[in-house]
Design goal:
This protein is of the alpha/beta class. It has one domain: Vaccinia Virus protein VP39 (Rossmann fold, 3-Layer(aba) Sandwich), CATH 3.40.50. It has a 7-stranded mixed sheet. This is Ubiquinone/menaquinone biosynthesis C-methylase UbiE. Pfam families: Methyltransf_11.
Length: about 210
């Protein structure tokens, strides 16, 4: 996977994305992911890889400043079209592996289905950590190999094919987070669907 390929793939994906990833089991999963999340007025939230903006529906709180970035212009256009004009939100075309923000800018960073998509997940994780404020929160919803760290034979065979669709089904979150264990502490790691393949992970930034 690379950025040029992903841009092309997600331009193709855009018209169908919500039908797959914002309906059925995925819709139920998203509800679980954002359940109990507390956001207060005056906080600044970053959506890393906002996609078509499905997650923005859970953030209709006035007084919350939102920045939403994505590499795909077509995805950003779709996200922009679905939000209320009353929301304080800014959309920016940007690479999640190279965030153009100062250190410790955001109180909350949402990384939904992005670490399995970017070419370099560790670089992306490092950028997420860098822009999160001390004692801030990172919320991750994504697919990873199981905590036991073993891919089934079928997934090993499917992995190269699925990567052509712009995502990786075999990345290890433990490997991704390992370089940043002194910066980010795991507060919650909960299986959400597909026997734990998709997980809700909440991280707290060390002050």
């Amino acid at each position: 996977m690379n950025n040029k390929w992903n841009k092309m793939i997600y331009r193709i994906w855009t018209p169908f994305y919500d039908k797959v990833f914002n309906s059925g089991v995925f819709l139920k999963a998203r509800s679980k992911v954002f359940e109990g999340l507390s956001v207060t007025q005056g906080q600044h939230v970053l959506f890393v890889g906002v996609g078509t903006g499905a997650d923005l529906e859970y953030f209709n709180t006035l007084g919350v400043k939102i920045t939403a970035i994505d590499l795909s212009p077509s995805m950003l256009a779709s996200a922009r079209a679905r939000v209320s004009t009353e929301m304080d939100i800014r959309f920016i075309e940007m690479d999640a592996q190279s965030l153009d923000f100062p250190e410790q800018t955001f109180d909350l960073v949402i990384a939904s289905l992005i670490l399995s998509v970017v070419p370099d997940a560790k670089r992306c994780m490092g950028e997420i950590s860098r822009v999160t404020k001390g004692e801030g929160t990172v919320l991750i919803f994504d697919k990873f190999e199981t905590v036991k760290g073993k891919l089934s034979i079928s997934k090993k065979l499917l992995r190269p094919l699925v990567s052509l669709l712009g995502t990786d089904i075999g990345r290890s979150f433990q490997e991704i987070i390992q370089p940043f264990n002194d910066q980010l502490k795991i507060h919650q790691d909960t299986p959400v669907m597909f026997n734990g393949m998709y997980r809700k992970i909440i991280l707290e930034k060390v002050k």
